[in-house]
Amino acid sequence: MTEEHTEFTGSGRAGIVAIVGRTNVGKSTLVNHLLGEKVSIVSDTVQTTRNLIRAILTEERGQMVFLDTPGVHKAQGELGKNLNKAARSAVQGVDAILLVLDGSSKPELEDDGWFRRICREEVPCIIALNKSDRGTNFVNAYQALWEEIKAEKESAVQPVWASVSALQGTGMAGLLDTLFGHIPEGPPLFPDDILTDYPRKLNIADVVREKFFHRLEKELPHALAIWVEDIDEQEKKWTVDVSVMVERHSQKGIVIGEKGRLIKWVREQAEKELYEMYGVRFKLNLWVKVEKNWRKNFWILKKLGYA
Ligand SMILES: Nc1nc2c(ncn2[C@@H]2O[C@H](COP(=O)(O)OP(=O)(O)OP(=O)(O)O)[C@@H](O)[C@H]2O)c(=O)[nH]1
Ligand SMILES: [Mg+2]
């Protein structure tokens, strides 16, 4: 860092960075890599992230609070619409925007939408072309699209472009330098020993949901909602009651699997990961319930934190 801090003698810079972009481009993978720890679930199913997740990075240069947002996607029903609204409103009041694109596949309508959105922003914008390990065939197409939209909107926004692979960690240090260069000086916003303020119940539910996503195909993941009812925190073991909601009776069998194999696999994988995250043993009780049309039920969405 070249600048001297005069007023603030603490640890440097502090700011909030919203990570936005189309679904599946690798926003959560990126935030996990920047933090060096898993704070947000990842899968190759669209709209994996359903809540806004705050991930907090504290180091010598200061503190950066990342908002990992649900990817914007053609809205399907109430849930899709709420996720899109959450993603769009996340950019309000932040210090910088990190727009993630998938440089290995061609621009889509949602990318166009984000370019139009950042055209109007007054805060610094950094554009990360992710998945560089898969090739950079479409980098020029994104840049051309940006120039076109910028000219059409007569925008003065000058984003910084970076090529990265969140999966392999390529370009991460450079990206972090750029981000630190664009947030203001100031004291940390959170204590320096916390990684996320995402509630424990929601995090446990997300870990379980991720395991299901790895095994379920097609539309079923979207019909699935996970809710932690209760956590009994004993010194040596935490026992957690988890509701697994599906929309139809036929889906119940799929989620449980033949001879209960699928749900057993999910339980074991989730227990293992939670042990690594929290350093305490977990016993998960998974209860499968049929809740017709929960995706359209405002109160259920609200309870799950999606509305
Ligand atoms: N090859 C490659 N795959 C990646 C990279 N980054 C992410 N992925 C994969 O892309 C898929 C989507 O990643 P996520 O991090 O869940 O994407 P997201 O943007 O958070 O998606 P939503 O939460 O649905 O908006 C996963 O299968 C990741 O493993 C990368 O740099 N290279
Ligand atoms: Mg995500």
TrEMBL record:
Region described as G3: 68-71
Keywords in alphabetical order: Cell membrane, Cytoplasm, GTP-binding, Membrane, Nucleotide-binding, Ribosome biogenesis, RNA-binding, rRNA-binding
MF terms (GO), sorted A to Z: GTP binding; GTPase activity; ribosomal small subunit binding; small ribosomal subunit rRNA binding
UniProt-listed InterPro entries: G_ERA_dom, GTP-bd, GTPase_Era-like, KH_dom-like_a/b, KH_dom_type_2, KH_sf_prok-type, P-loop_NTPase, Small_GTP-bd
Domain Era-type G: 13-185
Annotated segments matching region G5: 164-166
Region annotation G4: where it falls in the sequence: 130-133
Family: Belongs to the TRAFAC class TrmE-Era-EngA-EngB-Septin-like GTPase superfamily. Era GTPase family.
Name of the protein described by the UniProt record: GTPase Era
